[in-house]
Predict the structure of GRF-type domain-containing protein.
Amino acid sequence: MSTSSINSRRRPPTHCQCGKPLARRVAWTNINPCRRFFNCRNSTNPGMPHCNSFYWIDPDLPNEWYKSQLLELYLTLNQEQRVHFLGQLSAQERLEILQDEFDVYQNEIETEIEAMGNKKAELEREINKLKKKTSFWRKFGICVVVLLVLLNFYVMK
């Protein structure tokens, strides 16, 4: 596969080695989020003859922070924009994006589950406190009734 980066001084090629106009696409992989490139128009069509022409339009991002920020922004796009982008991606790239989304949602759910577990434990402690108070007052009430019965019994004698 021939890959090259397009220098800003050089005009980008317009046709691939097959003689067809190049397709402009956007990579949404973990390694190259939102990085534009040209490649053979038929490269994403299984069974269609195609060449290995491939040219990056954008330079590589300078560090991982930029890449992670772009992926996070991508994941926050509205559904219509997301579907449009997914339509331009290969199956492997879609799988990688879906895996990233799954990981984000899984982390959010795990955080919520942990928070709910903490809230449940707090509520259980509160219930136990109330049960102890209720138990005390129930026992106190029984003692008062027993004392009143005994007092009534002794007064009647």
